[in-house]
Structures are given as C-alpha cells and as structure tokens.
Amino acid sequence: MRGDRARRIVTSRTRQTRNESNKVCEQERGKRILQVRRSEMEKMQRKTELRVFFIMSYRLFLWLLTVSLPLVYVHGNTVTQLTMENLDPTLKSAQVVFVAFCADWCPFSRRLKPIFEESAAAWYRDNPQSSVVWALVDSVAQANVADKYAVTKYPTMKIFVNGELILREYRGSRSVEALTAFVKQHLQTSIQEFGSIEQLNAGLDKSKRNVIGYFHCRDCPEYRNFQKAAALYREDCAFWSGTNEAIKAMQGNMLVFKDPSTESDIQFSGKFADFEFVKEWIQDKCIPLVREVTFENVEELTEEGLPFLIFFRDPANKNDDKFFTELVMREIPDQRIAINALLADGHKFAHPLKHLGKTAKDLPVLAIDSFQHMFLFPNMSELNLPGKLRQFVQDLQTGKLHKEFHETLDQRVAELQKTLEQQQIEGEPRPPGQIPVDTTLKPSIFKELKPSDKRYSILQKTEL
In sequence order, which residues have a C-beta less than 8 Å from that of residue 188 and are 6 or more positions away? Predict the structure, then answer.
C-alpha cells in the first residue's frame, strides 16, 4: 500500500514538473514568437521609412531639377538657360548676370551663340570664384521672358547687377574679348573714394554729374543701397564716397548731387534704408530731362520709342544749352514719358539740318522727329514766349501738325503749279521770291539710325 502511494506521489510530482516545464517552454516559445514578430515589424517599419525617405528624396530631386538652373555644358563650364521658373532665383544668385536673348531662326543669334558660350567658358576658367552668371534665353520657347524685358530684336544682350536691370544694353563688338571686358567692367566698383574734401575737389570733373556719399558705416543697408544704385547709373554719373577722415565732421549719413549745369548742390532728404527711394532719386538726378544725342547713343535713344524734340545748336555756345534746358524744365517737365528732349551738335548732325532746309548758319534750330516725319518749329524768335514750346509738343500729340500739313498741301501744290504754268505762258522766269516755297513734309531722318537689319533681326511689331 505504502509503495503504491509513493508511486502515485512520484507520478503526480513528475506530471506537475512536466506541466511546469511545458508552461516554461510555452512561455519561451511565446517570447521567441513575440521577438520574431517584433523584429519583423521593426524591419517593415525600417523598410517603410526607407521607402518614404526615397520617395521624398526623389520628389525633392525632381523639384530641384525643375527649379534649379538648366545647364548647357560648354568646354567644362556652364551657361544658364533662363526660363520663367528660374529667372528670379538666377538674377538674385550673383552680383552680375549677363543675358543674351536669342532666337534659333535668327542668323545673327546663331552666330553669337557659340561666341557667347566661348566667352562664358573663358570667363569661368579665368575667374572661377567670381559672382557672375552667363545666361541664354531661347526667346521663342521662352517668349514670356523676352516680352518681360521688351525685347524687339535678336540678339539682344542685357546685364543685371544685384538683381537690377541696367537700362543700357550691350551694343559693342560680338567677340570673346569684348564680351568678357564688358562683364568685368560691371563687376568692378563704380564708386571712387576720397579721404578729404581737398582730395575730392581735386578729383571732381565738374562737367559731369557727380553724386557724393558720406556714410558712417560700410557694412550696413544704407551704404549697400548707395552701392547698388551707383552700379545701375555708373555711365550717367560719377559716384564718390568719403572715408572715415572725410566724414568726421558729418553728423549723419549724407548724399549730395552736384549739378554741372547750375553748379548747385542738391541734398537727398529721404530714407537711406529705402532702396527704391534712393534709386529713384539718383535716377532723377543722373538722367537729365534734356540729354545729348550723339552717334554713339542715338540707336539706344531711338529704341526708347519716344519722338525726338531736337535742339540743333553750336555746342561751343553754352548759353544755348542753358536756354533750352531751362525752357524744357519750365514748359514741359511733365512730358518726359511722352517725348525725348535732346541737344544735338548742329555741325555733326548737318545731314538732318540739310534735310530740313537749314545749315549751320541757321543755328539754333528746333524740330520734332516723330520717326515718320520731321516738323520744324516755325519761328525761332518766338521760342522763348510762354506756352509756345508746350503748344508745339501738344500739336504733335494731337495730330495737329500732321493735319495742318495735309489741309494746306493741296493749296500749296496748286500755287506752285499755277506759278510754273504762268512762267511757261510768259516765257520768262520769275524772281525766286515770287515762287512758292516747297514746304513738303520731310520724312524722318532719325528712324534711319535705329538698330540696323544688318546686325539684328528686327521684330515687326505695331508699337514700333
């Protein structure tokens, strides 16, 4: 009995031990399964994270590919292809951006393109650290870019400094040397420094328009605005900046314009931190209401599209310059956007004078060239009378000058024909004073000085 009981106890304990062992095994197996599942979940999570990372990276790559600068590789260097998408970022990316607007159908563009690309390659090779971008615009595929900058001929080359368009485009030689020299010029500072008032006075060319800045800081928005504006109008004004010694007596920043015609000083009274304000003030002072037309700038002036109000005079007579400038400022200061008031050397521009029936002996002579016809101011002795100049300009704008010519044309032709017939009947020539003067309306001379079709492909637009 005792033996059976002992066996039962042993058997029971064995079963209990086995059950406990099984439980432990189940627990261990459960832990292993849990660890495997957790490991699989972690792997899946890592795969998901990697997938998301690659997707986001790919999307970022596509975005950068779209927004970043498409590049044409030239001898290991790059020329940027401008589009509306990358235009603003490109203009802001460098101190100087030189842009050529071309069209594949234009033979002059096709000739320029390899020269422009070679110029860019030479520039990047010689100036690898410079803040310069050379860019091309396919003006057919990117018509919006060309239209934004009023491109009317191909090729047209424009330069941007600190993101701002320089009004004067490049019209020089289309060679590697000339193009790179042009970029180098605009990369250089346009401001001359002086250490004392004596040094300034010794360096000033009083025949030029001078802008003088006195700034107590160089690494500040006020001075940087002055620098940016000076870069835009470097060809219109001479810019000066005083160093520490020259500005010790100054209480604050100061900007002064010296007018060569009046020899007076005009001080800037706006906010130096407002770039647009500074730029407009300098533009107003550096680009005068009355400019000089020369054979060097006449092409550029014709492209502004405004009729010419031309005062032909002897440049040696400075009183005539002063008279006409003051007359324009007094009579038509509001017509700056409607007509170009210009001084012209009557000796150099003898051909337009001859076209009007005048010579150097008749100087000064005033005329309007509308790029269709030329209209002569009828009586120079009345030019200084109040309202006469303004009426002359307004008669052009209203069409009165053209209308009056056509209204009296038939009468003048009839008078001339009658005189000729009378001569034939009488058989004797009449004195010149009795023969009606030929007052035929003269066609424009200055339209012939517009950009040449031997150098550009001109767009035929109605506004021209």
Answer: none
Topology at the third CATH level for domain 191-286: Glutaredoxin (3.40.30)
CATH 3.90.1150.10 holds for 288-453: no
Residues with Cβ within 8 Å of residue 401, at least 6 apart in sequence: 368, 375, 395
Residue 242 confidence (pLDDT) above 60:
yes
- At residue 214, the 3 state secondary structure works out as strand
Q: Are 140 and 101 in contact (CB under 8 A)?
A: no
DSSP string, 1-34: -HHHHHHHHHHHHHHHHHHHHHHHHHHHHHHHHH
Q: 299: buried, middle or exposed (CB in 10 Å: 19+, 13-18, 0-12)? A: middle
Read off the DSSP letter of residue 451.
P
- Which strand (E) or helix (H) includes residue 371? none
Burial class (CB in 10 A: 0-12, 13-18, 19+), 313: buried
Q: Is 457 exposed, middle or buried (0-12, 13-18, 19+ CB in 10 A)?
A: middle
pLDDT at 67 (0 to 100): 41
Nearest to 168, CA basis, from 258, 287, 84, 86 = 287
Lowest mean pLDDT among 5-19, 115-129, 342-356, 416-430: 5-19
Structure tokens at 141: 């595929």
Helices (H), strands (E): how many in the chain? 13, 19
pLDDT tens, 375-414?
Answer: 999 999 999 999 999 999 999 999 888 777 666 656 655 6
**What tens digit of pLDDT does each residue of 330-387 get?**
999 999 889 999 999 999 999 999 999 999 999 999 999 998 889 999 999 999 999 9
What CATH number should be reported for the domain whose range is 71-187?
Answer: 3.40.30.10
* Domain spans, the chain: 1-63, 71-187, 191-286, 288-453
Q: Which two tokens stand for residue 191?
A: 């401001």
The Cα-based distances of 256 to 201, 234, 241, 268, 403 in angstroms read: 14, 16, 10, 6, 47
**Nearest C-alpha neighbor of 154 from the set 447, 453, 446, 449:** 453
DSSP 8-state secondary structure symbol assigned to residue 151: -
For residue 248, what is the enclosing H or E element? none
Q: In this structure, what DSSP letter does residue 130 have?
A: S
Task: Give the chain's length.
Answer: 464
Distance between CA atoms of 351 and 357, rounded to whole angstroms? 10
The reply to whether 71-187 and 191-286 are identical in fold is yes
pTM of the model: 0.71
